[in-house]
Design a protein that fits this description.
- The protein is elongated.
- The chain is about 65% helix and about 0% strand.
- The model has no long low-confidence stretch (mean pLDDT about 80).
- With about 120 residues, it is an all-alpha fold.
Length: about 120
Amino acid sequence: MSSAEPAPSPPTTGRRLYRGLLFAILIALAGAAVSAVPGLFLQSVFVGEAQRCLEAQRKDIAVGGEIITDCGEASADAPVWLPAVMTAAGGAVGFVGGFGYGFFQPPRRSGASVREEAWLPF
């Protein structure tokens, strides 16, 4: 009397690995894109400091003829590797999280006739 469909078989390990790799790539790209913004912002802080230093040294030359401001060494130590490391770290975290989600995601019930009711008035 009940025409219940048989439960779908659980996904194989190969299918889980494929799904995990697919989600890992997608989420890693998104994580790298999102983490590039703060990396570039922090780099702009160091670039701005170097520009202010050069401007101060130009004023020293214009006023007194010699450079009094001693900030050239500090601006040379700016971490140019910072945006790349932050972007790579965001991508790595996204890769691990995406793989975990894709591999351990519970299987969907295919063929289930449960349908959500519309909650919007239009």
